[in-house]
Amino acid sequence: MTQHTHDRLLIIDFGSQVTQLIARRLRELNVYCEIHPFNTVDDAFLDAFAPKAIILSGGPASVVNADAPRPPSSVFERNVPVLGICYGQQLMMDMLGGKVEGGKISGGGGTAEFGRAYVTPAVEKSDLLMGWFATDREQVWMSHGDHVSAIAPGFEVLGTSPHAPFAITADQSRNFYAVQFHPEVHHTPNGLKFFENFIRIAGFSGDWTMNAYREEAIEKIRATVGDSHVICGLSGGVDSSVAAALIHEAVGDQLTCVFVDHGLLRKNEAEEVVTMFRDNMNLKVIYADERELFLGELEGQSDPETKRKIIGRLFIDVFQKYANQIDDAKFLAQGTLYPDVIESVSFSGGPSVTIKSHHNVGGLPEKMGLKLVEPLRELFKDEVRVLGRELGLPPSFIGRHPFPGPGLAIRCPGEITRAKLDILREADAVYIDQIRKHGLYDDIWQAFVAILPVRTVGVMGDGRTYDFACALRAVTSVDGMTADYYPFSHEFLGETATRIINEVPGINRVTYDITSKPPGTIEWE
Ligand SMILES: Nc1ncnc2c1ncn2[C@@H]1O[C@H](COP(=O)(O)OP(=O)(O)OP(=O)(O)O)[C@@H](O)[C@H]1O
Ligand SMILES: O=c1[nH]c(=O)c2[nH+]cn([C@@H]3O[C@H](COP(=O)(O)O)[C@@H](O)[C@H]3O)c2[nH]1
Ligand SMILES: NC(=O)CC[C@H](N)C(=O)O
Ligand SMILES: [Mg+2]
């Protein structure tokens, strides 16, 4: 069996919408874990992975169907603790000799449950539930149509809910645990404690810390890169900044960053990024002033997808141009994060439509004959921020809101002009200044101004104005996949509108965008 530095937990994914959250909770407990889709897990894989415990996720399928996805039966023969969640519980019961029945979702008489439920303990004491119940019942979140109707031999009931007599079940002699609810979601408020008990039972030492990650990542980068050169597209965003700082710590001068100014950056952004990395971090940064190239090619273009595709193509051309100037560059560094990795491998139910073509440098390495270095592949965004702090990046960089690669182009719906971009930069600067002054920056996931392609009539100082309208956007989100508008006070909105209209020539009307995602998207294009 393979030897690994850390205790490893394997999450087998059956397609639940919330599988990532299982990993997230375990990370908080300093447990190293990986998510793998069920159809990639076989005996050879299990031997190589050498899990110290296994979690079977939820999923949309029904074990009642013959073609339902299943793990190899050997997951129950490895002598390691197994936790089944929802579909995972149903699988365990089905595979270990219990019974599962299809539920009626509507029409009465069914045992389907969606939403909040309360479980109460069915035994006096158990390692799994130790310290979990703050009162005599604990809130959990259910989302299932099928239900377990008979538990497998060797299992007992540890907890029940009004509609789920087998809410929490266990075969404590084999350390098999199976629950109908989802301990990983926020609506199971004390879910972390539940996982803490499971990993204590499994004997994890909690050795997955950011400091250990940093040391190992540095060793890995050195071993991969050797004496070659690495280039890195640096945006000043959190991901590429942390990736660059880490690689710089590993291989120093062998790293060259290319920061592209496409003319679509925010006010003072180019100077801030270049100064910060050259002067404070001592990084080699090529400032690629490609404003004319990008703005020239975007002239007269108003279709959102056309604009995005032009920008994507020019990014590739520019990276190619600078890479050619760097001798023996063999690697391209990217700030790929764990959610990006999972999204591309996860079990998915069907083809999905393209809402917008996110600019992406993924197509680059092959074209340029480069290999990828992705030192953040195993981290979530908030973990990247922790790592950035450890690497000494200033807080102002670490806490930055995400900024999209196509920049202000997608905040200027319709045709882009230099004049509109200048107005937008000023308005955005005032808005962000307001948010900072009111101490709201860190509560908001992302905030920006979009300049609208309409001009409206106003009256200022008894004179008529005919200027652009703009929309303020501010959202809360966990991962950018869903979002809600931020509930600013009316005072804040009023004060901000006044400041923008007074301080930014070219804008005479301010609106606040209160669309959530879905149905909207965060950016306007
Ligand atoms: N102006 C730019 N110059 C060079 N590379 C860029 C630029 N904008 C984006 N990139 C590249 O595209 C990648 C993806 O952009 P993305 O916005 O997702 O990440 P980020 O900018 O590093 O972080 P954040 O999500 O916090 O903005 C970046 O990691 C970077 O490599
Ligand atoms: O690097 C990027 N390249 C892109 O092309 C791109 N488009 C959107 N975004 C960012 O992604 C998140 C979700 O945005 P949407 O709701 O608008 O799709 C938000 O954080 C957006 O800012 C991008 N980031
Ligand atoms: N959330 C789940 O894992 C659901 C499991 C199964 N598809 C059911 O409806 O019962
Ligand atoms: Mg960015």
Automatic annotation (TrEMBL):
One GO cellular component assignment for this chain's record is: cytosol
Q: Does the keyword Phosphoprotein apply?
A: no
Which CDD domains has this protein been placed in? GATase1_GMP_Synthase (cd01742), GMP_synthase_C (cd01997)
Q: Which residues form the GMPS ATP-PPase domain?
A: 208-400
Nucleotide-binding is among the record's keywords: yes
Its EC number(s): 6.3.5.2
User: Catalysed reaction(s)?
Assistant: XMP + L-glutamine + ATP + H2O = GMP + L-glutamate + AMP + diphosphate + 2 H(+)
* One term of GO molecular function: ATP binding
| Keyword tags | ATP-binding, Glutamine amidotransferase, GMP biosynthesis, Ligase, Nucleotide-binding, Purine biosynthesis
The pathway this protein participates in, as annotated, is: Purine metabolism; GMP biosynthesis; GMP from XMP (L-Gln route): step 1/1
Instruction: Enumerate the residues binding ATP.
Output: S235, G236, G237, V238, D239, S240, S241
Please name the catalytic residues of this protein.
C86, H182, E184
The task this protein performs is described as: Catalyzes the synthesis of GMP from XMP.
UniProt cross-references to HAMAP family, sorted A to Z = GMP_synthase
Q: What assembly does the database describe for this protein?
A: Homodimer.
What is the official name of this protein in its record?
Answer: GMP synthase [glutamine-hydrolyzing]
Lineage, please?
Bacteria, Pseudomonadati, Pseudomonadota, Alphaproteobacteria, Rhodobacterales
- Name the encoding gene, please: guaA
